[in-house]
Structure formats: C-alpha cells, structure tokens
Design goal:
heterodimer; A: Alpha-Beta Plaits; Alpha-Beta Plaits; four-stranded antiparallel β-sheet; B: alpha/beta; Rossmann fold; 5 helices; about 40% helix; about 15% strand; globular
C-alpha cells in the first residue's frame, strides 16, 4: 500500500511528467571530447612530398599522395588526401610527418617532440644514488646545467649532457659519479672474465708458497699488467675502455683460495659429505682426496669441517699500480682467512 | 489518408537488425553503447531486434568474409520491404585494414546488397551512428514504402 502511494506521489511530480512526455538525449552526447582524435587535417602548403605518411598508414586505401596539375606560373602542389571510409584515425601519419610545421594534424601526440642528444659519446654519465652524498659539487662543475636535483636526488639530464667528464673529476666519492661505457657490453664481460681467470691461475700456481704461510703473515707478489692488457685489446680494440674496465675489475676483485697438503691429509673423508656441490671426492685407486675446481664454490665449509686443520683458506686482493720502472703491475696480497679454524 | 498514416507509423517505429559479417566487433560495441542510458536508442522509436524478418534497417558491420558471401544476400532477402541498409564503420565500405595484399575479405558490402547510407570511422562514435540512422531511415523507409504501395496498385 505504502509503495503505491509512493508511486502516485513520484509520478505526479512535474519534473517526472515533463521528462516522460518530452524525453530527449542531452546535447552533450553529440560533442566530441577535446582528447578525441578525429580524422587527420591536411594542410596542403606544408607538404614536402616525402611519402612517409603513406608508408606508415596501417590501412591500405586510407591515404594517397596526389599532385595538382601544373599551371603556367607554378608547378602543382603535392599533398596527401585522406579517404575517410578507410582511415582508422590512428594518427600515425601525423606522428611520422617530418615537415615543420606538420602537414597532417591528428590528435595531440605528434606535437610532443622527444628530446635527443646529438653529441657522440662512449660514456653515459649517471649518479649512483646509493653512494652520492649530495654535496652538489658536480652541479657547480657542470658547464651546461645538465645535473638536476629532483626529489632530493641528483640526476643527469641526458639530453643536456655534453659528456665533458668534469662531474667525474670533481666528485669526491669514488664511484658515486659513473661514466659507464654503454656500447660493447659483451666484450667488456669477456675482458673481465679473462682478467679474473688469469689471476686465479697465477695464484693457484703459487700454492706451495701459500701452504707455508703463517696465519698472521701476508704473501705479496706482483704480476705484469701488460700481457693481460694486450690480450684484452685483441677482444676490444679500444685502449681507453679496456684499461678502465680492467682497472675497475682488478681493484675490486677478491679471490678466495682453498688448498690442502695431500701428505698431511688423514683421509678421514669428513669434508666429502659436507661439500654443498659435491666437489670433493675420494679417489680410491691412489688413496687421495680430490677437489673439482669447476664445481667448487670457495664457500669454506670444508676448511671449517677439517678436524686436522689441513685445509687452508686464503683471501687474495689485487691492486693495479705503477712500479719504480714506470711499468704497470698488479700487486697481489694473499692472507690466511680469519675464520675460526678447528685444530686437532 | 491511409498513406499518410502508414508514413507516420513507418517513420516513428524503426526496427533494427545488427549484422556483423566478419569484423573486429569494435563497431558492434559502439552499437551496443547506443542501448545504454546515455544515448538511449529506444526513446527515438528504434528497437534492436537482431531478427532480419522483423527488421526495417540492417546495420551491417565488418568486412565481408568468405562465409558471409551467400548469407548476406539471404539475410537481405528475408528482410521485409520497405528496408534500408546502413554500412556502419569503414569495413563494409572499403575493407579497412583487412583489405591487405593477399587478404581474403570481399568488401565492399555494396557488391552484394544495395547500401543506402554509410558511416565512416573505425569505429564511428555512437552519436554519429544515431545521427545517421535518424536522418536517413525514417525518410527513406517512408519513401520506399510509398513506392512499394504504388507498385501494388
């Protein structure tokens, strides 16, 4: 009953009666919103007749270049015409149109111009946000104002950067400002692998000296840099890039070395089940414990397991420097591990 | 007197059938949007039946595919006189992006059935479809109906 009264009340309202007898859509349904991308608009006079609009069009019959017939005073204009019954209003033609101002206008996207940097450079300059101390010395040093502070972070605007390298020189924190070589990354990987493998082989060959080393002594050695450098040059023929990649890799490199004296080994085989990769095995024919270098992770678990302290564990560090004869050499320092050693 | 009454009836009640003869469904979505309260198709006396035997207007979408070669003519034959055909979107007019080199579309639709009106766009806006149907359909239906009556007499 109450709902019936509600209906009578509702239907008796003037707005409802007006709406019922004079129903029509609001006018705004026919309005196209501003963002709507309509059929392209052609401005004949700007056309240079390059044909990139026809090449970019996904619809086969939508756009054609036509040419007006020549008159006595001037040659006919060349310009594109749009066939509306084929055009899909994608706006590609307007985006590729190279003339300034545009011959074709469609939507708004083609007005956005991507900034690009024409200065050729091997390096890309970036700020390492983790290391940066925000001293802003690089901002002062930059001649073109390419370093910007956004949200308390320093960023290099690549479209302004002229790759002068002054920011790299002024930066007081090593590694906070980076000039990364962005090309030939694969070759850089190969060079780093070469350096690491060469150094590791060299230290492995010095095992006899290492085993004699006491816990609080350092083993110092030198290796000529030239051979590694020359080999790397055959991978990538660019001295500047090779030298910097090698220097960075060598100065940062830490190699862990595991070794043991076969004569002292008691063949208890306790290290074999503890090895996480199964790199240690017992060769029963000549009664020795063998370590597979390829499988070994240098994790030091066998060193901590060995109850007789036979297994030795060393840390090697490297530094590239010049010696007295102005030759570049790699200083190698090896020290015994500080990890607690279990002694018999 | 009777003729005028017939004209009024034909103009004020338009029954529509959507025929998708192999398109991407973009235009069909725009047609369905016409049923929504924003556009409210039925306030103009247009009813979507999707049954060609009841329809006055065939809204054809899609570039005609191989399977539609005969069916399009059959549907047209089943529609009672007076009838008009509106090609919605670019596909029934030119094949649009499907009319590629080596493509297998048989557009335009006018090769198979007579088309009275065409709406460009890929897809056209719902308001454009509504506008086209409202401007073409009542007049064309009334005129065709009168011509049909004259033939009978």
């Amino acid at each position: 009953m109450s709902s019936l009264i509600w209906y009578i009340y509702e239907f008796a309202r003037k707005t409802w009666i007006d709406g019922f007898f004079d129903a029509k859509s609001k006018e705004d349904i026919a309005h196209k919103p501003d963002r709507f991308r309509d059929f392209p608009n052609v401005i004949k006079e700007n056309c240079i007749g390059c044909g990139s609009c026809t090449a970019s069009c996904p619809s086969p019959n939508a756009i054609k270049l036509i040419r007006d017939s020549d008159s006595e005073e001037s040659v006919g204009l060349t310009y594109p015409i749009i066939n509306k019954s084929s055009c899909i209003r994608c706006g590609f033609c307007a985006e590729v149109c190279p003339s300034t101002p545009k011959t074709l206008e469609c939507g708004e996207n083609h007005f956005i111009r991507e900034e690009f940097n024409i200065i050729p450079s091997k390096r890309k300059y970036t700020v390492d946000d983790y290391l940066c101390i925000r001293c802003k010395k690089c901002m002062d040093a930059c001649e073109v104002g390419a370093i910007e502070e956004i949200d308390d972070r320093l960023l290099v605007n690549q479209s302004k950067c002229i790759s002068c390298g002054k920011c790299l020189e002024t930066c007081p924190v090593k590694g906070a400002m980076k000039g990364v070589f962005v090309n030939n990354l694969e070759e850089q990987k190969k060079i780093i692998n070469l350096a690491v493998n060469t150094l590791e082989e060299y230290i492995e060959s010095k095992q006899d000296a290492l085993i004699q080393l006491g816990t609080d002594k350092l083993f110092l050695d030198e290796l000529k840099f030239k051979p590694i450098f020359d080999k790397s040059l055959s991978i990538l023929n660019d001295g500047e890039v090779v030298h910097e990649v090698l220097e960075d890799a060598i100065n940062r490199l830490k190699i862990r070395i595991i070794t043991w004296d076969g004569d002292d080994c008691k063949k208890c085989q306790m290290c074999i089940p503890d090895c996480p990769t199964g790199a240690i095995s017992f060769a029963s024919d000549n009664d020795t414990i063998v370590r597979d270098k390829e499988k070994c992770l240098r994790c030091s678990i066998c060193y901590q397991t060995c109850p007789f302290g036979v297994i030795k564990y060393f840390l090697a560090k490297f530094n590239l420097d010049t010696n007295d004869n102005d030759e570049e050499v790699i200083h190698i320092s090896v020290k015994a591990s500080q990890l607690a050693e279990r002694r018999a | 007197m009777l003729k005028k009454l017939k004209d009024i009836v034909r103009k004020s009640s338009i029954h529509v059938c959507i025929v998708n003869c192999g398109g991407c469904n973009g235009c069909d979505v725009e047609l369905v949007a016409l049923l929504s309260p924003r556009y409210d198709l039925e306030q103009y006396g247009i009813y979507v039946h999707n049954n060609p035997r009841e329809a006055d207007v065939l809204l054809v979408t899609g570039a005609v595919t191989e399977q539609w070669r005969d069916n399009l003519r059959r549907i047209y034959a089943k529609t009672p006189e007076p009838k008009i055909v509106v090609a919605v979107g670019n596909c029934p007019q030119s094949g649009d992006v499907f009319a590629q080199e080596g493509g297998r579309v048989l557009a335009p639709v006018s090769d198979f059935i007579p088309v009275d009106a065409a709406i460009p766009g890929c897809p056209p806006r719902p308001s454009e479809i509504l506008e086209a149907v409202l401007t073409v359909a009542p007049g064309a239906l009334a005129a065709k109906g009168r011509a049909q009556d004259a033939r009978k007499d």
